[in-house]
Specification:
The chain is α+β, with helices and mostly antiparallel strands and 122 residues long. It is 39% helix and 26% strand.
Length: 122
């Protein structure tokens, strides 16, 4: 399951304005097959995510960092667009996601950051 900061999901939902969010996933893989297990995770997660109106927008491998302190470079990034905060929460708590996709994600990663973003107002 996604490991969320205590009370972060509650605050995330309390501040919901109904607009779409993009979830930035910064990923650091297990050295022994983590990248391959993450590909397995994406294959399982994509149809589950789609059931909640979300889509995996981008997945890319990290290149050597041009500006980062030691340990700040990431192996990969994934962007997932969710139609609302509630849709994200429902997906993250879904039994199918928890039972089938989340274990693959956990087995693939040593570290991850999940940061929501919203389109900036003009």
């Amino acid at each position: 399951m996604l490991t969320l900061i205590e009370d972060a999901l509650d605050r995330f939902l309390e501040e919901d304005d109904g607009q779409a969010v993009v979830m930035l996933n910064l990923l650091r893989f297990q050295e022994d097959g983590g990248r391959e297990r993450y590909a397995d995770y994406l294959a399982v997660a994509a149809p589950i995510v789609a059931r909640f109106g979300a889509e995996i927008v981008y997945v890319g491998n990290g290149l050597p960092a041009l500006s980062a302190e030691p340990g700040q470079a990431w192996d990969a990034v994934a962007l997932v667009r969710c139609p609302s905060r509630r849709a994200f929460a429902d997906m993250a708590m879904d039994a199918d996601y928890r039972d089938r996709a989340a274990p693959l994600r956990e087995a693939a990663l040593t570290e991850a950051v999940l940061q929501p973003f919203q389109t900036a107002s003009s």
